[in-house]
Amino acid sequence: MDDLLADFVAETREMLEASEGEIIAWEADPTDRARLDTIFRFVHTVKGNCGFFDFPRLASLSHAAEDALSDCRAGRREADSALVSAVLAVIDRIVEMVDIIEAGDEIPEGSDEALIAALGENSDLAAGEIDGLSDLVGAVEEVAAAIENAEEGAADEGQGEQEAPRAPSQNAGVQRSIRLPVDLLDRVMSGVSDMVLARNDLAHRLRQAGNQPTIDGPFERLTTILSDVRDAITRMRMQRIETLYTALPRLVRDLSADLGKQVMIDLEGGDVELDREMIETVRDPLTHIIRNAIDHGIEEPSNRMSKGKREIGILSISARQSGNTISIVVSDDGDGLNEERIAAKAVSVGLITAAERAAMSREKILQLVFEPGFSTAETISNVSGRGVGLDVVRDNLERVGGSISVSSTPGVGSMFTLKVPLTLSIIAGLTVEIGDQRFAIPQSYIEEIIDSTSKSLDFTRVGETALITFRGNRIPCLSLAEVLGLPSTDIAEGEHTMVLLRLASGDLFALAIDRIHHHGDLVVKPLAPAVMNCGVYAGSTLLDDGQPILLLDVTNVAAEHGLVSDARTRVLQAANEQDQDAGEALSRAMLFTDYEGRKRAVRLELVQRIETAKAKEVDISPDGKRAVIDGVILPLVGLPGGQKPTGKIRLLRLSDDTCELLYAVREVDDAVELQNALKPVDDDPLVEALTLVDGQTIALIDGHEIFARYGEPPELTSKPTCHLPDSDWARTILGPLVSAAGYEVVSGTDEAGDIAIVLDDSEPDTHLAEGEFIRLRSHPDTSDNDGSIYRYDRDGLVDALRRARAGGK
Amino acid sequence: MNDLMVMVEIGGRRCALNAHDVSSVIELGVVTPVPRTADFIAGITAMRSQSLTVIDCRRALGMDPKKFPTDHRGAVVSIANHSYALMVDRIDDINTATSEAENVSGGFGPEWSRITTGMVETPTGPALLIDLALLIAGPESLGAAA
């Protein structure tokens, strides 16, 4: 295929990607001129380009579409859904042909008359029929193409022989970008890595030679430039997640049309960047979840109406980066997951027993949908349930170090959270030593590191198996030296440093090593097959000094030693662990020193994580302190009044499953068992009891009280709505107050709220609210008791809003 | 046939590597051993920011490397997108093969026959032309990883 043709294919593809979202948006609002223009431009360009080549079918198709669209532009014709479907079908056909051209095959003879006819004004073909027709034609074409291929020998290759010189790039100036082979990028990247290593070597030598001001200055500059370049190159490999998004509106449109549902898609965070390869990895899981959401989640319009929801279901997809992970959240406002049905199904396929089911929480039951052999759809539709289950989705994500989870509220919707690492090639890792050799372990597996001197560690041998007891659990223990067949070092058994590793399956085991060496980002390189075959290593990486070390394949090592449980036991284990948590609720607590220097403890179950935040991320306002963690604003307690912290602060992130808060601590000590009696105290409501830990008096934080006082309930997914009058005062002054009271604000004449607020004497318009009307008056005192509230009587208004909310629901 | 050959000595025998396959000859610095792999994998080493798998050719032929001298340099070859450094007795010169690879009656002995495509004539005498893909597969390509 010659260059001109390749350009044509690439350009068509690019424009197509851009216009796909547009065409759906256009359907939603056929009067939107800008959208129409974009689509028109696309078919027009295709038509124009076809003129240079000899593609009669392509030309006639694009010509027909152009005609229809130009009628719309000139106002001779209304865009309706039949037209949009027809245009989509034409675009699909164009894509098929472009694919054929790219493969270097001849475009088969065939007729596009059906499609062109569908574009016609008086076409009575329904959208579905067109799609069906185009499928049929597509199938016929495939066969034709296959025959063509078989006879290829005689066919001459270039159908682009007759091209005339083309005007230099038609879309010049649209976007200044160039196409580069990924290979080339990789080469540049490895070149830069080499430069970094050479720099490190030089730095080493410079240090040995002592201070040399004339060299040190330029060397510093070199270092800065190099790290800039390195960042830039890394970014070159990144792609905006938008590229993934562009195809989604079309997918959602087609699916919802097939299923007779109305779905609106809401995309957010398109500017989040991800490694190219990772985008490809995420594509299938994401599509799968969207299919599921539309097929099972969102209800038919009539069904939705009867539940008091809006006819149109909302599917929202948002991407966010936090540290080295990207999380993509797909949420719908459909019916939610049915706990009972999931549980019943799990019992019927033998994943759990009825007794186990009774002991499991809703949260745990929902996660069962990711287990192999699971699919709740009772009938297999052509949308989901095509034999690929959510277990495959989970497996694929776990393979690249990602994860997936689901949460759902019955009747309100469900939310799938996908997490993937930013890149495949750079991971956070821990370098450990055995004797004088080093190995790397991916950070994502590491649950905890237990120092050899820690007393909480109890090492025993049962038969040949080593076990450690940690926080009351017996955990199998592998010695890395034994796993690798290295001679054991002079460190006595049980004196090793332990790394607790949590596998994706939830299994936990300990790995005994000699020393922790280092912790940082590792650039992972593939290994030769002969080395990979032994199943112990996942790759290699270079240390700063250029020495290569091996990255351990934790999952394989665990599997080899029989430490990975199968799906069934995995489920049980999760349930058991929960039981244990419940049983031992009294026994464990996190010990810390607070900002007033007192030793305190908080029940371990409440502690989600230990966070570190910069002092500037803490906001102190009269109604309380807050801090921003992972892009979420959380209430902050534990800082003494008036004192503004400096530098970094340690925060315990506490959670009661629905809301979270942060507790600032000066120092986190350790997790301890509460063995001694708890002595309740009365003087401080925030303290549940006093107890003795290692002879010291410790105050145990009262979880109930702290959440009751400071916890902020999460935003409700569906809020009641309140209609406000159309005035500046209502919008800017009243609006925020009403939102703060938990209402969603609506205004204008075409939208009705659950309740409405009217001003002074204006007549309540009964169309505007289904429930109560609240009347505000402009003067503080009025003689006639008409039930109105003075507009600045904050308490009265808030109270009225609360009553309306309680009454309306 | 006038292909360039990198002449090496493996286990005391003169062998030839096709110069097209050899991308460079490097100093073998620190070789990090790789536990649990077949013994002919001497370890991994770094060439700039790339990591190379070091193959001890003597062991790949089932011989004991201690009986032979070992060159401090290694020949870097790339097979199936992976780079390897070959550890040999000695890396000699580059020479031109003056004949096609051909078999001799009776073969070259089972170990050698497994990894060679035949004998080539060079100005310094006959040499075995090594098939690199077969060489790095190791003595028992099946189960060698155990």
Structure notes:
- The complex is a heterodimer of chains A (809) and B (146).
- With 809 residues, chain A is α+β, with helices and mostly antiparallel strands.
- Chain A is built from 23 helices and 35 strands.
- Chain A has a 6-stranded mixed beta sheet. A 6-stranded mixed beta sheet of chain A has the order 27-19-20-30-29-28. A 6-stranded mixed beta sheet of chain A has the order 21-25-26-24-23-22, with no helix packed on it.
- Chain A is globular, with a radius of gyration of 32 Å.
- Chain B contains 3 helices and 10 strands.
- Chain A binds chain B through residues 190, 193-194, 196-197, 437, 483-486, 523, 525-531, 533-537, 540, 542, 546-550, and chain B through 30, 32-38, 41, 44-46, 48-51, 53, 80, 82, 84, 136-138, 144-145.
Quick summary of this structure?
With 809 residues, chain A is an alpha+beta fold. Chain A has a six-stranded mixed sheet with strand order 10-14-15-13-12-11. A six-stranded mixed sheet of chain A has the order 27-19-20-30-29-28. The longest helix of chain A is centred in the N-terminal third of the chain and has 28 residues, at 182-209.
What's the structural blueprint in terms of helices and strands?
The complex is a heterodimer of chains A (809) and B (146).
Chain A: H1 3-28, H2 33-52, H3 56-73, H4 81-102, H5 113-119, H6 127-150, H7 182-209, H8 213-236, E1 238-240, H9 242-245, H10 248-259, E2 263-268, E3 273-275, H11 276-297, H12 301-306, E4 313-322, E5 325-332, H13 339-348, H14 354-359, H15 362-367, H16 390-399, E6 403-409, E7 413-421, E8 426-434, E9 437-442, E10 446-450, E11 458-462, E12 465-470, E13 473-479, H17 480-484, E14 497-502, E15 508-513, E16 515-525, H18 529-532, E17 537-542, E18 548-552, H19 554-560, H20 567-583, E19 588-593, E20 599-603, E21 607-614, E22 618-621, E23 624-629, E24 632-637, E25 648-655, E26 660-665, E27 667-673, E28 679-680, E29 687-693, E30 696-701, H21 703-710, E31 721-723, H22 728-740, E32 744-746, E33 755-759, E34 773-777, E35 789-790, H23 794-808
Parallel strand pairs in A: 2-4, 9-18, 13-15, 20-30, 24-26, 31-32, 31-33, 33-34, 34-35
Antiparallel strand pairs in A: 1-3, 4-5, 5-7, 6-7, 8-9, 8-16, 10-14, 11-12, 12-13, 14-15, 16-17, 17-18, 19-20, 19-27, 21-25, 22-23, 23-24, 25-26, 28-29, 29-30
Chain B: E1 4-10, E2 13-18, E3 22-27, E4 41-47, E5 50-56, H1 57-60, E6 73-79, E7 82-87, E8 90-96, H2 110-115, E9 116-122, E10 125-130, H3 132-136
Parallel strand pairs in B: 2-10, 5-7
Antiparallel strand pairs in B: 1-2, 1-8, 3-6, 4-5, 6-7, 9-10
